[in-house]
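Service request form, structural biology core

Requester: graduate student, group of Dr. S.
Request type: structure prediction, single chain
Budget code: on file
Notes: please return the result as structure tokens.

Sequence provided:
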Amino acid sequence: MTDDGSGGTPPVTARVVVADDQTVVREGIVMLLGLLPGIEVVGSAGDGEEALRLVAERAPDVVLMDLRMPRCDGVEATRRVCAAYPDTQVVVLTTYADDDSLFPALRAGARGYLTKDADADEILRAVRDVMSGDAGLSPKVQRLLLDRLTERDGPAPAAPRRPGGAPSTPAALPDGLTPREAEVLALVAEGLSNAEIARGLHVAPATVKTHINNLFSKTGVRDRAQAVRYAYRYGIARPPGDSSDAFVT
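Core staff response, request fulfilled:
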């Protein structure tokens, strides 16, 4: 283990809850944490609802949170933990490091993000970092964030278009929609189901449902019909037969 830089003073013990729906994985993480200095596991949960209950009962310093869980997924559980229990920090520990997993988790309030190939030192470092007010990001996640920042700050390419003509990334988006939410909205306007959108974007259906719930909330629409009208009104999608090039740069 690396020196904690405390001049011989033992580090403050971090009280940790582990949330993962796979029993073998969850028990393995608990066992690993039990071997690390300065960590006390105070509970383990099989889904987000149980994680929230444990946070309320045991006031942990840190939750190691998986993302893909039943009843209440990791992103929603993270959002609720951060809103109701600001003294508890969330470190995501998941298999996935794609944009559709990483950015919703960070926007929900996660202070750390690790993938499940992280070693014991990385986990310990992330827990200590978030407890001290820093971000606990794995090197892989840091590289991904830097890549996305580089893409954002580089020359803006022409907006790609999907079959049917809807631009996937409008130049200016209303109501705080993200480019991905606008892309999903355009595909909804084309009449695609959640499953079809998931296949086309190579993401899980649950991820598509999350995007749709978010864009419904932001735009104030109540159903898919209203969402289609919204997409037409703001040029995110075009009505059939309309050949205009709204939002294409």
